[in-house]
Amino acid sequence: MRILHIIPYFYPAWAYGGTCRAAWELTRALVRKGQEVVVYTTDALDSHNRASPAYEVVDGVEIHRVRNLSSQLAWGRIFLPLGFGRHLETALRSADVAHLHEFRSYQNAVALPLMEKMVVPFVLTAQGGLPRIMGRLALKAGYDSLFGHRILHNAARLHALNEMEHKQFIEWGVEPERIAILPNGVDLDEYRELPPVDGFRERFDIPADVPIVLFLARVNKIKGLDFLIKSFNELLKELPEAILVIVGPDDGYLSHVMRQVQTLGIEERVRFTGYLDGDDKLEAYQVASVYVLPSAYEMFAITLLESMACGTPIIATDRVGLADFVRQNDLGSIVTYGDVLNLKDEILRILRHPGDVEHRAVYGRQYVLDNFGWESIADKWLEVYEARDFGRSEKVRAGAGV
User: Fold this and answer.
1) Domain match, 160 and 214 both
2) What is the pTM of this model?
3) pLDDT, tens digit, 9 for 90 and up, residues 122-169
4) For the sheet containing 290-293, what is the strand order?
5) How far is residue 284's CA from residue 200's CA, in Å, rounded to a whole number?
6) Rounded Cα gap, residues 219 and 256, in angstroms
7) Degrees (nearest 5) of the Cα angle 272, 273, 274?
8) 123 membership: H or E segment, kind and range
9) Residue 32: which CATH number?
10) 71 and 170: one domain?
């Protein structure tokens, strides 16, 4: 089967977040299953740089990159790859199925009429992008009027990451039988044998045995860092030696966060590392006493799985799509978004009583290794792609109840 993936950013544009990583791991896993995988994307890499070359094959995945009009516009999520449709039309002729990543994108708007004309079945992974939130509301409404509703109506299958996104599709009028629920996963090879924690504290001037509260994600308003910092400030009144480590690229919100830290007068208790990947990222997870994801809205949160796979306790808000799953399987702590004292109390409980959560952390690590590998998830994706009735069969579920 020849599967064509269409996505605004792709390997190695890790700074764009979990969607990029998930698409990369899925495409690699499909190649290992013997499928032909082609990706049409842009040259987006980060806030200032472009990915290259225009064409390459990596781990069997055929990657085509079309140049964006501007890297800075792309970092602001305005992707304008000139001539994208011309490049895409040839690829669609030989595709058995197309897979769109993200909901509202220039690429999808270009691809939609071509797929309609050429009768190419396609699947949409919205990656949490269905709600009209976080600005540009009029633009999103206009896009939905012109393209969004057609994409949802014409897609052979809609991919929901969990029950939260499944409900969102239903609210858009999508028939339940056209929705496939599959989780994202992790690269198990990265986590089975974790690297030694070598010098992380020294590199970032953190004394030995000082408890570390970790945030690791894009520094974006939606991630709730202002909420976490307020709670951390309260925590310092009872545990003044604690350190907050903020890991991630600036996604337009770093200056606000730094001003908040300065206003509270807690600069000495906060470390900004910038973006970390590979062993550096795994070290950050391992050295942390607790990982906190304080998001105002988050559909899946691959970082929760990564932290659990490193054996680190997790705290997330009730606005995260995995919240119910975490609760039901006793994998971590869930707090109410915006409740500063609730979050402070939960962090304090974990830091003061690490033995009480050690069993949960060990269990969580094994749970991720047993249930969230890309090999098994790719098998479920093949069931979706190969279902020729596309949507008249029962809803596909995977991922141990996710």
Assistant:
1) no
2) 0.88
3) 999 999 999 988 778 999 999 999 999 999 999 999 999 999 999 999
4) 270-274, 243-247, 212-216, 290-293, 314-317, 333-335
5) 7
6) 10
7) 100
8) strand 122-125
9) 3.40.50.2000
10) yes
DSSP state letters, 14-69? GGG-HHHHHHHHHHHHHHHTT-EEEEEEE-B-SSS-B---SEEEETTEEEEEE-BS
> In 10 A of CB 198, how many CB atoms?
9
CA distance 43 to 313: 36
- What pLDDT, in 10s, does the model give residues 295-346? 999 988 899 999 999 999 999 999 999 999 999 999 999 999 999 999 999 9
3-state secondary structure of 197: coil
Looking at the structure, do residues 170 and 207 belong to the same domain, yes or no?
no
Cβ-contact 328, 350 below 8 angstroms: no
Span 80-110, pLDDT tens digits = 998 999 999 999 999 999 999 999 999 999 9
Smallest CA-to-CA distance from 186 within 377, 392, 384 is with 377
CA distances for 262 relative to 232, 252, 256, 259, 270, angstroms = 13, 18, 10, 5, 10
Asked if 241 and 148 sit in the same domain, the reply is: no
